[in-house]
């Protein structure tokens, strides 16, 4: 039960973080969305052997974390949740990519370089997406998508799916609590009850979703989800977007770590 309660709390934590009033939180949601999309585009555009070129892009999430005053631990925990999938995708690269390179007098497989590249790209993209939600919130993010003329049905589906996950978790918690009260000596759910509990859970979530929809209709819902008033884009918003896009383009066009190393050693390449 404690794990279920923790899961519900962790799901709502990003929404709670999005209600802060920091410099980053006050930015226009469309600007933050476009900045994140630009960042993701640049990150995935790097080749599989361009590991050093990715290093300057760590500056963006670090700055956003600092300016938004976000706790580091919840972000890292969510990145760790997807890390097994990332490792599973890239771990076979050293097997398939048998090309070698020499480093410090020893030969290494280029597959390890591509594996490291996958880890870095995945970590950066997941972090950027989490920071966008933690500094904007799903409601304001939906408003930004509507400004970009994303079809209403897709935006509504995204929002309701996001909200329905928490409803499902609450019903799971209630079902497990009722089961534990009726079988206090039973550790966990007995396998003979798995099927009936899953069916009951499905029916309860459908019924809960129907009640939520009826409540929305009583409050005037007619197919358009109103996320509240969104202010106009200010000059500071444009400066934020332009500054980061310029940095991303610069980091993509030039290998900044190599340039810094060349300047420090006096060797210009």
UniProtKB/TrEMBL annotation:
GO biological process annotation, one example: cobalt ion transport
Keywords: Cell membrane, Membrane, Transmembrane, Transmembrane helix
Transmembrane segments: 51-68, 75-92, 112-135, 244-268
InterPro entries referenced in this protein's UniProt entry, alphabetically: ABC/ECF_trnsptr_transmembrane, ECF_CbiQ, ECF_transporter_component
Membrane topology value: Multi-pass membrane protein
Gene Ontology CC annotations of this record: ATP-binding cassette (ABC) transporter complex
Main location: membrane
Locations listed in the record: Cell membrane
NCBIfam families: ECF_T_CbiQ (TIGR02454)
Official protein name in the record: Cobalt/nickel transport system permease protein
Species for this entry: Desulfosporosinus hippei DSM 8344
């Amino acid at each position: 039960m404690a794990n279920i309660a923790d899961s519900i709390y962790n799901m709502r934590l990003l929404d709670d973080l999005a209600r802060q009033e920091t410099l980053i939180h006050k930015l226009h949601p469309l600007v933050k969305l476009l900045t994140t999309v630009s960042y993701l585009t640049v990150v995935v555009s790097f080749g599989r052997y361009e590991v050093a070129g990715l290093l300057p892009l760590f500056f963006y999430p670090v700055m956003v974390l600092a300016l938004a005053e976000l706790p580091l631990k919840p972000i890292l925990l969510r990145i760790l949740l997807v890390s097994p999938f990332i490792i599973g995708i890239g771990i076979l690269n050293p097997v398939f990519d048998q090309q070698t390179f020499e480093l410090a007098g020893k030969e290494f497989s280029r597959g390890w370089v591509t594996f490291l590249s996958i880890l870095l790209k995945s970590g950066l993209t997941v972090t950027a997406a989490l920071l966008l939600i933690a500094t904007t919130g799903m409601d304001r993010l939906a408003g930004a998508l509507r400004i970009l003329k994303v079809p209403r049905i897709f935006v509504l589906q995204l929002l309701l799916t996001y909200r329905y996950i928490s409803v499902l978790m609450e019903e799971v918690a209630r079902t497990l609590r009722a089961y534990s009260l009726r079988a206090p000596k039973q550790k966990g759910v007995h396998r003979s009850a798995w099927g009936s509990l899953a069916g009951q859970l499905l029916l309860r979530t459908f019924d809960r979703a129907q009640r939520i929809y009826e409540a929305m209709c009583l409050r005037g819902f007619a197919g358009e989800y109103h996320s509240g008033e969104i202010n106009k884009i200010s000059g500071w918003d444009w400066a934020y977007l332009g500054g980061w896009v310029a940095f991303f383009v610069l980091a993509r066009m030039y290998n900044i770590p190599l340039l810094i190393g060349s300047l420090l050693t006096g060797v210009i390449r």
